[in-house]
Amino acid sequence: MGFPITRLRRLRQSEQLRSMVRETRLSPASLVYPMFVCPGEGVRKEVRSMPGVFNLSVDEAVIEARQTHSLGVPAIILFGLPEKKDELATGAWTEDGIVQQAARAIKGEVPKLVIMGDVCLCEYMSHGHCGIVRPAHPQSLGAAVAAPPGVASDYEIVNDATLELLARTSVSLARAGVDIIAPSDMMDGRVGAIRNALDHAGLANTPILSYAAKFASAFYGPFREAADSTPQFGDRRSYQMDGANRREAMREIELDVEEGADMIMVKPAMPYLDVIAAARERFDLPLAAYQVSGEYAMIEAAARNNWIDRDRVMMESLLSIRRAGASIILTYFAKDAAKLLA
Ligand SMILES: [Zn+2]
Q1: Per-residue pLDDT tens over the stretch 267-292
Q2: 267 catalytic residue (yes or no)
Q3: Which of 85, 107, 267, 335 is catalytic?
Q4: 266 touches 313 (CB < 8 A)
Q5: CA 340 / ligand 1 centre spacing (Å)
Q6: CA 68/CA 38 separation, integer angstroms
Q7: Which stretches of the chain are DSSP H helices?
Q8: Which of 119, 139, 149, 202 could form a disulfide with 183 if both were Cys (CB 3.0 to 4.6 A apart)?
């Protein structure tokens, strides 16, 4: 039945009608607020490329966590800027690591707030890669000719040895009060290794939210400033996914599910809405999406120029991620969105 019997505008005539037939709704209950914790006291240093986002010392992080919770946002995810970096990412897994300190302090003051702990090594490694690095030698004469010394192929990110550090980090974070372990490194087999380590440490009830399909994206730029995690050489394309591959993303997710992930994530969000939608169709686990720093920075920058209506674009961007199928959204807009939704 077409026009003139069918007129879709009939149900758009008023906000009451539009609200009644709305297919997708946002709620603060689905938002997670990312926070960057740094050493010191009373530190609240704004990230240049992410206005409104700060590096916070533990005492300030507690204040921020309390405020976030009071706005109805149920969860935060913690990233750490350690005092010192080294080749073994000691700051990631040591008992007095910066995220461990923050988790203990926040759990003590805001016990009902769910704390997710990002598990990766890049913020703690002197070279800024997500895993252990070792020199690699060209495999063949052809490869040696194709890749002269000094370029990307003369090092390698060692997968299996890295798993041990990721597992150690996860156990340490869970012991410090982190409720959900969220590995973001993209090493093969890390979900299984982490599950195994948690179970052996008596932490069988700690869930894993895996960054299952994490793409090598230029949209992470501002985050690297926020978390001081820019690789000192090369890039992350040997472990993060190629942005062109949706089918491979399904394989990545499937493997993480088999290894014991309780929840899965697609990252970034807006440039990968089709991947979110495909994952929603195919998997029945809770699905998260990370609206990353570059997505946030673009909206903030345009709004600061009065080129767009910040609040409306913010809400529309979150709605698009929700509509694509993500039930959980990690976003730097979490607090502001929750205020608008209140
Ligand atoms: Zn990393």
Answers
A1: 999 999 999 999 999 999 999 999 99
A2: yes
A3: 267
A4: no
A5: 32
A6: 18
A7: 15-20, 58-70, 90-93, 98-109, 141-146, 159-175, 190-200, 221-226, 246-259, 273-282, 293-304, 310-324, 334-341
A8: 119
